[in-house]
Amino acid sequence: MRRALLHVDTEARGRDGAPILDLRSEARARGKLVLPDVALDPDERRAIVATWRGRMVSEYASARVFAALVPQAMAAGLSARETGALAEMALEEIDHGIRCARVVVALGGEPVAPLGALPLVPTHDDACAVEGFVRNVLDVSCVAETVAVALVASEQALACCPALAEELERILAAEVGHARFGWRIVDTIVPTLPPEMRRRLGAYLVVAFREALARFAPFVTMRDASAAALSLGAPAGPGTFRVLVTTLETITVPKLEAAGIPARRAFDLALAEIQGDRVAGEKPRPRDAA
Ligand SMILES: [Fe+2]
Ligand SMILES: [Fe+2]
């Protein structure tokens, strides 16, 4: 009975004690997704299934981020419309998790995986409610979701068949909305903030950019994916890191600078730190890869 009610089996635990996310019944309920038989070597196929399974978990888990932003939006005095939009975004991320689960099944895998760590969304107790909320929105929408739009759009363009393209199209449409939410906040709220607060938001961006660059750094040393693997949604390897850097440099930074947040300096600092880390580890420099 419990399994019919919950997405997470509360008794099953992974090796690290994390709950197991099991989306088999949710994927089944949406009907079978059929993908063409793309020629892949077994390692590539395993890696693609693992990618979609990891994506299933991260999409599903990101619902908690938007859900946590709801009370923060209320405390910051946002309209009911914008606050409600955040609740809808949480549901959309769960929907994305199920869409990814369908792809896992179509590729011959099981949409079952440890849910992993679920870090709390920062409450920024050193800042007022508006500044704390804007910090999180910059991180979530103006960095992560804006980059997601660029990445999913390129995957969608390369999809092996209309059925996978349709799944990615539905995910993309929602990610565009998640990014636009942040840019609405930047256009409407940020210009009303005092200069000192905008300066502090720039300082916070160093953290947000650094975390995004660190999260994507492993792609730099990955092998370039084959065309067949890319058509099934495999990460492009170094190209994925290039998309991150290009999106931040050409979209996020200029838009935030236009709103009066010193984002250029923050990005340059974060990039220099990542480059320094990688040079110390004698690995390729991200700037070279970008
Ligand atoms: Fe998503
Ligand atoms: Fe999203």
Bound chemical compounds = fe (ii) ion
Query: Main sheet, how many strands, which sense, barrel?
Result: 3 strands, antiparallel
| Terminal CA distance | 50 Å
C-alpha geometry: globular
Poorly predicted regions: 1-6, 282-290
Domains counted in the coordinates: how many?
2
Structural class: mainly alpha
SSE order, one letter for each helix or strand:
HEEHHHHEHHHHHHH
Portion of residues in helices?
Answer: 55-70%
Number of helices: 12
Strand order of the largest sheet: 1-2-3
Radius of gyration: 20 Å
Secondary-structure blueprint of this entry?
Elements: H1 2-5, E1 8-13, E2 19-22, H2 24-29, H3 42-61, H4 63-75, H5 80-106, E3 112-114, H6 129-158, H7 162-188, H8 195-216, H9 227-230, H10 238-258, H11 263-280, H12 286-289
Antiparallel strand pairs: 1-2, 2-3
Describe this structure in words.
The protein is mainly alpha-helical and 290 residues long. It has 2 domains: 1-117, no CATH class; 129-290, no CATH class. The chain is 68% helix and 4% strand. The protein has 12 helices and 3 strands, in the order αββααααβααααααα. Strands 1-2-3 form a 3-stranded antiparallel beta sheet, with helices on one face. Helix 8 (195-216) runs parallel beside helix 11. The model is unreliable at 1-6 and 282-290 (pLDDT under 50). The site of one fe (ii) ion has 5 residues, from helix 6 and helix 7.
